[in-house]
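User: structure tokens for this one?
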Amino acid sequence: IPWEQDTRELADARMSYQYFYTSEVTMRKLLLLFVAALFVVACKKEVNHEEVVMNAARQYYGYLLKGEYEAFVDGTYHKYPVHASYRSELIDNAKMFIAQQKVEHDGIADIEMVMAQVDTASNTANVFLTLKYGDKSHEQVVMPMIKKDGLWYMR
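Assistant:
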């Protein structure tokens, strides 16, 4: 019949359009997912390990300068629990160190963090700092640090 149309060709045409449309929607979803993942990765703030370890060293020396010797000693890493008498000796040593610096250099006036070298594989670091004394002299020292259970300790 000439006025009738072969619907098989139309069905094939519709099927290919539906395939193209679903393929396009899938590609849009994948592209959107990729852009979202890229955005999340780009917005993730990278941890500055050097800054973190220098802040820990600054905190420990701050304890020492403020006379909080117990807190300073507690910032030292020990593989095993420290006996009370040994801890007391460490506190006395910190007090003697500050007293000695007062006699020899009019005390420690300021501490300047210079730089840090961090080895993230071994969770160790060396913090280079400058002790500025009351007599205007200064001395650069290295503070070895170790990271245990997410916290930095002096070695």
